[in-house]
Amino acid sequence: MAGETILVVGGAGYIGSHMVLDLLQAGHEVVVLDNLSRGHRDLLTGGKFVEGDLGDAVLLDSIFSQHRIAAVMHFAAYSLVGESVSKPLDYYRNNVAKTVELLAAMGRHRVQNFIFSSTAAIYGEPRAMELLREDSPCLPTNPYGATKLAVERMLADNATAGDFRYVSLRYFNAAGADPTGRLGERHEPETHLIPLVLKVATGERQAIQIYGTDYPTEDGTCVRDYVHVHDLTQAHLLALKKLLKGEGSAVYNLGNSKGYSVREVIEAARRITRHSIPAVEAERRPGDPAFLVADSGRIRRELGWQPRYERLEAIIETAWAWHRKEASRSN
User: Which residue out of 14, 91, 144, 215 is catalytically annotated?
Assistant: First the structure.
């Protein structure tokens, strides 16, 4: 299956740039579409780069006309929960309406295979502290999760209507960096726990805030399932192989099926960085579930996915190597 041309939409972002790297290493040709509103041109390691928007129908037609695209991977979403609450229409426009344009262009050019970056946010607030399966209730509590669920429903309807196949990958907490140090996590603003904790260790922040210490968990802080970005990209490659073989559509959770609390993440980072990492306790944030951990048995069984970085310390170590390099470069 190597040698196929893959369109990576949002390929200059955190996960997208790692995906481009792994696609190139797997022998694929890559076309990257990114408007750089939240991505970074310097994170691209190769492929053909097109600066532009996924909602631009004329540009999409040009890309599909110039390249024999075998599959599309879609990473170009707004993903800040708080921002989605304050600017819901921006999220519906970018995450849903523009995806309609992308799917329509695929239909015009008879491109059948689509891999979608979905999220655990579609599950909302779980009713119990148990592993979430793909058939668990999907009741998102914010517009970000709602837009991702809307796209998943749209993909299912599109697959029913015509010659179209998709795999939707529901990420839990993506973390870590390319093990060789070429790529890492860079968001502006940064909202993810592990990079925020490591920014304290590099001196870029004074302390890490713990939002809520009275959750019904072992130490009172939220529990999350952290999955390494390399393991995410490997799952995408397996999904791509499935689609290129002509197999049917599917939805998969992507997580390590083990949860770590906020305090456990901070303690692990203290051990790895050898920095005290001061923490400040704060009130809960609205909409933060106590427990979000994946049952990822389906993708393990059906596609043979096996995460390489299952230990929290291993994930943080790769992130720490990247953040130290980034901090030294900016000084």
Answer: 144
